[in-house]
Write a structure and sequence with these properties.
By secondary structure, this protein is an alpha/beta fold. The protein has 3 domains: 25-158, 3-Layer(aba) Sandwich (Rossmann fold); 167-261, 3-Layer(aba) Sandwich (Udp-n-acetylmuramoylalanyl-d-glutamate--2,6- Diaminopimelate Ligase, Chain: A, domain 1), CATH 3.40.1390; 265-398, CobE/GbiG C-terminal domain (Nucleotidyltransferase, domain 5, 2-Layer Sandwich). The chain contains 15 helices and 17 strands. It has helices spanning 9-12, 17-23, 36-48, 79-87, 99-106, 140-151, 160-163, 188-196, 227-233, 247-254, 277-291, 311-320, 329-333, 342-348, 354-366, and strands at residues 29-33, 53-57, 73-75, 92-96, 118-122, 128-133, 154-156, 179-180, 201-205, 221-223, 236-240, 257-261, 265-271, 298-304, 324-327, 380-388, 392-398. The strands form 3 sheets. A 7-stranded mixed sheet has the order 3-2-1-4-5-6-7, sandwiched between helices. Helix 5 (99-106) links the parallel strand 4 (92-96) and strand 5. Helix 11 (277-291) crosses helix 12. The longest helix has 15 residues, at 277-291. The radius of gyration is 25 Å and the shape is globular. It starts with 8 loop residues before the first helix and ends with a strand.
Amino acid sequence: MIDVQTDAKDNHSHNYNNDHATAAKKGRVAVVAITKHGLEIAGRLKSIMHDWDVYAPEKFRSEQVTSMMMEVKWYNEPSAVLIARLFSSYNALVCIFSLGAVIRMIAPHIRDKRSDPAVLVIDDAAKFVISALSGHLGGANALARLVARILNSTPVITTAADVNETIAVDLLGSEFGWRIDEASEHNITMLSAAMVNEEQIGIYQDAGERGWWSKELPKNVRIFNSMDELNASGLKALIITDRLIERDRYDELLARAVVYRPKSLVVGLGLHWDTSSDEIARGIEHTFKDARLSMHSIRCIATLERGYEVKGLKEFSERTGIPVEYYTKEQLASIQVPNPSTLVKMYEGTPSVAEAAALASASSKGGRDMEKDGEKGKAELVVEKRKFPPNLTVAVARINNI
């Protein structure tokens, strides 16, 4: 097993909470039109994308500017004031007016690519759809292509990775919920430049989905079978793992690498009706620290369906954004585990809760046939049950998608 420890935050803090909360954020799109033609274009978008909000000046309310019946949010304030308000409350803005005007309006509010919304600009004749801000992380590039298809327009995208059809370092695995480890965020720009400049880059992956790149890999990208081989190569690197990387051993590699955390781990919990949220947090943190696993890779919690809600578990899930899956005692009793308990069976109706729940959930996501335990690709119990008195048991299983 790779010994990994890139960031002390992975061990002792709740920074992994933001992971799931961000993923759960609801997408909202605002379309802003300031001319009659722009409002007609907005109507074409609204006819397809019904949940998008359309904003237009109040002066057009009484005019028959479009034959389409649609809900419009009319405004009287200056457009710059409206844009400032929408910039902080929507995930994407589609502005149907000049690029220069949009730049001047959004410039005072731009902060960083992790929080800024996607911004598109469409000309008054709908000839071009320009991805103006947050092309990758914000999704403006993908949104520009969608809008261009609806309007039969030309998408204008200037991001180098998209233009050159190579790997976008800051988006790798985003469709699967992967995140970049904070300790390697400062290397994103360096790796992105190396990728588009076709420098030799190495990739090592030992967890997570394999389908992150559907085409043939770029010629400058090389796959490595071990961290040691990648380390010895001297290449800039992309590392996909749910393990903590030992800095003393791989310090030089980490200085030239971006580390991705796939959602590959399921935490199985056995608990009591009065187990608190803090007890759950401490138990998981200690388990992951000792097993040298990244809490950023937690996909979900799995446990026994008891017929009532455990308040502490509900609070933990709400606080962290980590979802909870429930299994019946019959489902859990059918799972073979390394540490069955007659005492647990007496009280819970199944010989195992934590281990069985972790395996049941990981199996359902990794495609394991639970009746054919010998088959390659079955879920892997990476941490057998650990007891945390008085009433908490933790186990961890890995979803095998490799």
